[in-house]
Design goal:
Length: 152
Amino acid sequence: MRGTSRSASRFVTKDAIVGLCNGQVWEDEWDDAKSEDWRQGRTGDSDCIVVFPASLDTVMRLAQGRSDSPALMMMQVTHLPIILCEALPVINSVIEHWRNILLERPNVTTAPPVVGTKATDRDSQETGFNLPGAIEMANELISATREGDCGE
């Protein structure tokens, strides 16, 4: 089971997520979370959580320990790896402070940056808005975890 917020559906549809993860998709709303796996920090039998897009609001809410939706609650209590595909408009001291607090968590990382084109002035800029990079990173983390489990 995978969750998506209503605002995230402007970037990627539920149908596209189903195609990527071969699972049931639910909106990140209390009345749409069909399972209660999120209470244990899981979503179905997932091995990793990818947040795409990780908007400024999502990053800040997660860093502050908020749990006002099923997905945020799940990410606050999970031990699964969390990969953020950051879609931050700018980095300033406030954003950097909360982002750094969040990245202190041992299971949270960011997708590898890519160079993108800004819509405002068409300049190039690094961005973490990198779903293919996050999926590749997730596969590597899952493989490493499984290899570690086999060796114990």
